[in-house]
């Protein structure tokens, strides 16, 4: 007999054992059984007589509990905290809200809003090294470090897709521009600080034009040197320049020593000339005053004044003369050189001409003495 034929046995698949009702099972009864099982799982229970109404009440409470639980989880998922050194940017359905999220505890609806938090106080570093061509067509190896912070969180997250890559490319461009406008000596020796400042300014202008939201705080030139292949030649050139500077410093020191001495000597000569001028003027004025006084005396006693002037003049003349004139009786004056003056005259005569003149004077003195003696003897004989 087929499974769906009426008859004895427990072959009814709908569970109608021993019942005479043919047809499909009752769906309402199956739903009530399922509700009863669910209410039992959540702690519900009840008698058999009021099974349908109790199942409906328990099903409504369970759904409310599930809804409240899901609502609590949703609300808790939207709570987040922003630290003091951080700022948050809110994306609502992909659109950026204009205001940044400051420090503190905040809530935004999940799924609707997405919050990105970035650190705006941490100093970050970017190192760069490359071979650069200078203005005088020399190659230098330059390495630098760029220190930067996030200036604007929305600009940093939105305006540029990869801000760190943009920073690296802008650093390369700024460094090549600055090094290409400087000489090799300026890049390697005394111009490194100026180059670092110029690179920082140019790099900041690039990033500001991009709207990258990055603030460059410091650029440090870590190393700037010629390539290894030309290091020896460069060292020789540097040594020659150091020698040149040393010689210049020595010459400057010598000039600083000699010039003040020359100026002092010139000033001394000027002062001596001024003193001589004042002395001559004072003497001339004194002589003029003396002459005026002598003129007054001469007007009163002419002969006496003439004799006195003659005596004074002769005294001045013979005072500086080493020869002595003796008035000999008979009209012949005798001139001789005192012996005490002879040593002084010999010491003063330093040149051969002076010695010859001294000899001539001595010979003349001998002849005069001989003539004087002859004349004296003749006078006595007469």
What does this entry look like structurally?
There is one protein chain. This protein is an alpha+beta fold. It has four domains: 62-117, no CATH class; 124-226, Tetrahydropterin Synthase, Chain A, CATH 3.30.479.30; 232-320; 322-377, no CATH class. It is 57% helix and 17% strand. It has ten helices and ten strands. It has helices spanning 27-41, 51-77, 153-158, 163-180, 184-188, 192-210, 231-300, 302-319, 339-348, 352-381; strands at 79-82, 86-92, 95-96, 104-107, 113-119, 124-133, 139-150, 214-225, 324-327, 333-336. The longest helix is centred in the last third of the chain and has 70 residues, at 231-300. The relative contact order is 0.05.
Can you tag this structure with a few keywords?
three-stranded antiparallel β-sheet; 10 strands; alpha+beta; Tetrahydropterin Synthase, Chain A; 382 residues; 4 domains
Using the CA coordinates, give the radius of gyration.
64 Å
CATH class of the largest domain: Alpha Beta
Percentage of helical residues?
Answer: 55-70%
Largest sheet: 3 strands, antiparallel
Structural class by secondary-structure content? alpha+beta
CATH superfamily of the largest domain: Band 7 domain
Spatial strand sequence of the major β-sheet = 3-2-5
Taken in chain order, the helices and strands follow as HHEEEEEEEHHHHEHHEEHH
Counting DSSP H or I runs of 4 or more residues, the number of helices is 10
CATH architecture level-2 label of the largest domain:
2-Layer Sandwich
CATH topology of the largest domain: Tetrahydropterin Synthase, Chain A
Average per-residue pLDDT, rounded, comes to: 75
Number of strands: 10
What is the strand content? 15-25%
Question: What is the domain tally?
Answer: 4
Morphology call? rod-shaped
Distance between the termini: 224 Å
- Spans with pLDDT under 50 lasting ≥5 residues? 1-21, 44-58
């Amino acid at each position: 007999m087929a499974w769906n034929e009426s008859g004895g046995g427990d072959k009814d698949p709908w569970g109608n054992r021993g019942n005479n009702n043919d047809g499909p099972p009752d769906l309402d009864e199956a739903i009530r059984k399922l509700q009863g099982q669910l209410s039992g799982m959540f702690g519900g229970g009840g008698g058999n007589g009021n099974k349908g109404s109790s199942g409906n009440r328990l099903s409504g409470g369970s759904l409310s509990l599930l809804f409240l639980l899901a609502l609590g989880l949703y609300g808790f998922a939207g709570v987040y905290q922003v630290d003091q050194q951080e700022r948050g940017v809110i994306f609502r359905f992909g659109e950026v809200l204009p205001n940044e999220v400051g420090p503190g505890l905040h809530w935004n609806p999940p799924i609707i809003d997405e919050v990105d938090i970035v650190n705006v106080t941490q100093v970050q570093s970017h190192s760069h090294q490359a071979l650069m061509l200078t203005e005088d067509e020399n190659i230098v190896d330059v390495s630098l470090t760029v220190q930067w912070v996030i200036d604007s969180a929305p600009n940093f997250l939105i305006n540029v897709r990869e801000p760190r890559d943009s920073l690296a490319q802008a650093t390369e461009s700024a460094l090549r521009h600055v090094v290409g406008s400087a000489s090799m000596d300026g890049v390697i020796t005394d111009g490194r600080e100026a180059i670092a400042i110029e690179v920082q300014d140019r790099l900041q202008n690039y990033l500001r034009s991009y709207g990258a939201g990055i603030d460059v705080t410091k650029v440090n030139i870590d190393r700037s040197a010629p390539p290894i292949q030309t290091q020896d030649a460069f060292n020789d050139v540097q040594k020659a320049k150091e020698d040149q500077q040393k010689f210049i410093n020595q010459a400057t020191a010598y000039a600083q020593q000699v010039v003040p001495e020359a100026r002092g000597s010139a000033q001394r000569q000027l002062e001596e000339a001024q003193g001589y001028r004042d002395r001559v003027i004072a003497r001339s004025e004194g002589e003029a005053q003396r002459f005026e006084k002598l003129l007054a005396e001469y007007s009163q006693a002419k002969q006496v004044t003439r004799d006195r002037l003659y005596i004074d003049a002769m005294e001045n003349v013979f005072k500086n003369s080493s020869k002595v004139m003796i008035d000999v009786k008979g009209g012949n004056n005798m001139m001789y050189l005192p012996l005490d003056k002879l040593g002084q005259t010999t010491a003063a005569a330093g040149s051969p001409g002076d010695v010859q003149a001294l000899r001539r004077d001595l010979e003349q003195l001998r002849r005069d003495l001989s003539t004087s003696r002859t004349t004296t003897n003749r006078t006595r004989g007469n």
